[in-house]
Amino acid sequence: MDINSRSRGIIDCLSDYTFHILGCGAIGSSAATQLARMGASQMVLYDMDTVAMENIGVSQYTFKDLDKPKVEALKKIISHINPVCIVDPINARFKEYIPDPMLKNIIILGFDSMASRLEAVTIIANNQRQPEALIDGRMGAEHYQQYTFLKPTLKSYLKTWYSDSDGDPEPCNAKATSYCSNMSGSFIANSVRKVITGQPFNREFNFNFPALILGKKKLIA
Q1: What is the distance between the alpha carbons of residues 95 and 89, in angstroms, rounded to a whole number?
Q2: Is residue 207 a contact partner of residue 187, using CB atoms and an 8 Å limit?
Q3: What is the distance between the alpha carbons of residues 134 and 130, in angstroms, rounded to a whole number?
Q4: What is the C-alpha separation between 149 and 22, in angstroms, rounded?
Q5: CA neighbours within 13 Å on the CB side: how many for 45?
Q6: Measured in Å, how far apart are the chain's first and last C-alpha atoms?
């Protein structure tokens, strides 16, 4: 079974990685389904919430998923896309980073709050085996920000972090749109492709939907 035959030659090595999806809401569910379609073979999903009505309009869930744990619902969605992808659903608060000892690891941050992101990065940074990359997607209703770190450290992450009270009133808040959340998954999947194939990537960028403007900073070769 080769579900991504049309992308062969563009990216062929996702099976060398385990993807840790921290937060399975709008950003996390979109990124996970995109990676599944690209041929990811291993994922770990972290989320402690259940699917609510408001999630359906901005995430990958349907009415059949209401009141189910997000990680279990997303696991089922992924199985319908890519049956060979092994998914480990963790229906709990992220408290421990356990890297896959057999594969390389990439972390996708999709939490709703900046406080939860900092807590997660602190846990990850304290592990002796760092992930190959950490991709942090931050979304508001019509504004998306993304930061990509190779071998992330707490010091490097703190340079981009801001508190929930001090940050931009739009990115990383409770508001969302379906087109922004779906695009966030595409941006993350594209960054994953660039990182694992050794292509230049933008460490930091943002996209504003009303203006259709992409702002990019610092190309990493």
Answers
A1: 14
A2: yes
A3: 9
A4: 15
A5: 30
A6: 34
Chain mean pLDDT for the chain: 91
What are the helix (H) ranges across 17-106?
A: 26-38, 53-56, 70-81
Arithmetic mean of pLDDT, 29-52: 97
SS3 204: strand
pLDDT at 159 over 70: yes
The angle formed by the CA atoms of residues 58, 206 and 164, to the nearest 5 degrees, is 70
Q: Model confidence over 203-213: pLDDT tens digits?
A: 999 999 989 89
For residue 212, count other CB atoms closer than 10 A to its CB.
7
Angle at 89 between CA 83 and CA 90, to 5 degrees: 170
The H-or-E segment that residue 43 falls in is: strand 42-46
> What distance in Å separates the CA atoms of residue 197 and residue 73, rounded to the nearest whole number?
31
